[in-house]
Design brief:
By secondary structure, the protein is an alpha/beta fold. It contains four helices and ten strands, in the order βββαββββββαβαα. The chain is globular.
């Protein structure tokens, strides 16, 4: 993306020949509820000092996302869309497992119980329109939350995410 800051994440690999059919919306903050650190960036680049916070039980965890949208709407891209980011974990969509193979992951800086900012929605809508215009199998019906593809394991983007606001704008 030309309007995004790019920070390379090593946590990616080649995609199979599977078409991209899905956008997965996530929510993340490190430490939980803290929006003033670069810990998410450090996590996605394998540089997070897991000893500094008692709840950083993330030692040796290798994760990434294609996009992170900060609270101020800043867009950071970690993995090109044509490569597989490691964002979904154990997951399934319409009977297909391993959603990382056929999805684009977008992280919103936030928690399950916080409202996301207007700037985040503006950036998310802009990115989603770009993706939909470039990947014809992705549409409003193939945009899900992490909780939808990993029920019982994940709860993000949480109950404060305004699905109607987002989808109506697409």
């Amino acid at each position: 993306m030309t309007n995004a800051r790019f920070i390379h994440s090593p946590n990616q690999d080649d995609r199979s020949d599977t078409d991209l059919i899905l956008i997965v919306i996530h929510g993340i903050s490190l430490p939980p509820g803290d929006f003033d650190s670069d810990d998410i960036i450090l996590l996605f680049t394998n540089q997070l000092d897991c000893s500094k916070e008692a709840y950083f039980d993330l030692l040796d965890v290798k994760v990434s996302s294609h996009i992170l949208i900060r609270r101020d709407g800043e867009i950071i891209q970690f993995v090109p869309f044509n490569r597989r980011a490691w964002h979904a974990g154990e997951s399934s969509f319409k009977g297909m497992s391993g959603c990382n193979d056929f999805s684009i992951g977008i992280e919103l800086e936030g928690t399950d119980n916080d409202h996301f900012s207007n700037q985040q929605y503006q950036s998310l809508i802009q990115i989603s329109k770009l993706i939909i215009n470039n990947y014809p199998k992705i549409n409003k019906n193939t945009i899900v939350g992490h909780s939808d593809i990993s029920p019982g394991r994940k709860t993000d983007p949480g109950n404060k995410f305004e699905w109607r606001r987002y989808l109506d704008a697409l």
